[in-house]
Structure formats: C-alpha cells, structure tokens
Amino acid sequence: MRICGVQVSADVTTPLVAPFPWFGGKSRACAEIWGALGEVANYIEPFCGSMAALLSAPRVHKVETVNDADGFVSNFWRAVQSAPDDVAHWADWPVNEADLEARHAWLVARKERLRWCLQDPDFFDAKIAGWWVWGQCSWIGTGWCSGEGPHKHDGAHFAGNAGRGIKRQLPHLGNAGRGINRQFLHFGNAGRWINDWISALSTRLRRVRVACGDWARVVTPVVTWRHGVTGVFLDPPYCEGTMEYSAGGNASSIAADVWTWAQKAGAEPKMRVVVAAYEDGRSVPDGWTVRRWRAPKGYAADGGANARREVLYCSPNCETS
Ligand SMILES: C[S@@+](CC[C@H](N)C(=O)[O-])C[C@H]1O[C@@H](n2cnc3c(N)ncnc32)[C@H](O)[C@@H]1O
Questions:
Q1: Any bridge partners for residue 6, and if so which?
Q2: Most CB contacts within 10 A, which of 71, 159, 174, 286?
Q3: pLDDT tens-digit readout, 21-40
Q4: Strand 42-45 to strand 63-67: parallel, antiparallel, or no bridges (unpaired)?
Q5: Cβ neighbours for 177, distance < 8 A, ≥ 6 positions apart
Q6: What does pTM read for this prediction?
C-alpha cells in the first residue's frame, strides 16, 4: 500500500520513511548522500533523527549503526524494532488537544529517566514511543517533549513556573496533522495501516544497532573502518540558521567538532564521510567534493535563503559520479 506517496511493504528494498516529521530531516538529500557513499560494508548515522538516509538506502549493509542524543528518538526506533504492534497500538489515536496536553506532561516527566534506562541495551518503552510519535505528528513546529516550556504539572494542575516544564499549544488541525495523524485513526480498522507501516520499519531495522548518546561514541575505529569500507553520514545541528533540533540546539559547537573529525577521518582509506552543512565559505580540503541539494523552506523565517545553501561535503574516497 502507499502512504504519503511512499510504498509501504515488508520488502526491505522498498524505500521507507519515518512516520513523523523531523526538523532538519534529509529526505530530499538522500539521492546525493547515497551517490557519494556508494556501496559500503558498514554504515553509520550518528545524528539519525528520522533516519531519512538509512531508510532510503538502496541496499541493506552488513553492519548498520544509528545514534541520536534524543532519548525519545532512540527509544522510538528501538521500540519499533522489538515491539511494532505495541508501538502502533499506542500511536493509534485521534488528534485531541486535551490528550496532547496530558500526554505531553506525562512524557516530559519521564524524559530524564528514559535517558538513563536507555543505557541498558535491551531497554525500550513502547507506550512512550507510541505517545511520543503521535504527539510529534500532532504538534506544530518544534518543542514537543523538549521539556523547555514554562508550564509544570504537579499531578493535579499546570503551574506557570519558569524552568523545566512543558509547552502548551493548539495541535495541528489545518490538514488533520501529518505523518500518522493524517486521518482519525481509530474508526473501524482505519488504524490497520499504522501497523503495516511500523511493521515494515521493524523488518527493515531488525539488525540495525541503535545507540543513544553523543555522536562521538559511534565514530571510533572499532565502530567504523575495522568493519571494512565504512560510510558515515553526519548531519549535526547546524551552528547557524533558523532550524531547531530537539537536542543540542543550534548554538553549540557540535557542527564545528564534526567538521574537524570528518577531515581527519576522511583521510583513512576505508572511510567515506559525508557531512551535511551550509555552504559557508569554509576551506574545503584537497580531494573533497561538494554536492548540492535543495531543502524545503518549512517554517523558516528567512524566506528559504538558507535552504539554497544546503550542501554535502564528501571526503576523498566517496564516489564522484
Ligand atoms: C539535523 S538533525 C538530523 C536529521 C536526520 N538526518 C534526519 O534525516 O531526520 C540533528 C539530530 O542530531 C541530534 N543531536 C543533537 N546533538 C547531538 C549529539 N551531541 N550527539 C548525537 N545526536 C545529537 C538531534 O536530536 C537531531 O535528531
């Protein structure tokens, strides 16, 4: 069957997409990413978010590792791998403002504990995954489960304390939501396609290793070239522009640290490194190439100017065709 214009089936060679929107998602850059990485034995996505690149890969690799610092993201992918029907069950709910607010408070209250629990490689929570993805699709813009809003819930009511709390806002009603909330899902068996979608993702991700933490932990030699020819797609939060991300923000030095690491790692014969960034006048080392792609304007306040600056910096051992 087709969902959002995408064929959904358990055949792992069929392109799949995440069932939620994600700021900075690179679905439109995938052809260029895979054109540069080519055929590799080992693939790593240290800033996976909605996993646009891995899900669009033209092949399943011998070893595949994804990572994100956001516990809700990592928990979602782990739960999809291990308990797709449970995730679909918890995600299958109509858009409802009261539920959005109540579930948001419930999820934010579990944010810290979730990060700790995810250190156990076997841990996942399907209810958190289902409610999180349902809200991610109902919520407009950024801030879902960031824990950075002004409101706190003391178990009985909201208080306007500053500090760690939740944001409150009207849910996405304009086009009945995005991703899994494109229709009221629980009537009849209309929710059936959620099961199919999540089950197809589960099949594709069955052997993918999902980590939750800082990107640097999944780019060491043990994780990269020691497994053979390795492709690494790095898509850190950018350090400029209007895009926001759920972890890290755009005021950190992550993008600069990534670029420093990439230049060194790209010299290793078994490494193919692709870095997503804006074209910003940086000095591009000898042998590196630059591929262009066009991002959607989204909610950008700059009229799409930055969307035109999106490029992929590709290390010397990447394919050039
Ligand atoms: C630009 S988004 C990646 C989007 C992704 N390529 C996609 O297609 O959806 C950046 C991601 O980095 C994650 N992140 C932020 N800081 C991080 C860190 N220090 N280590 C790992 N992931 C981080 C964010 O949670 C976010 O999902």
A1: 3
A2: 71
A3: 998 899 999 999 999 999 99
A4: parallel
A5: 95, 137, 138, 171
A6: 0.85
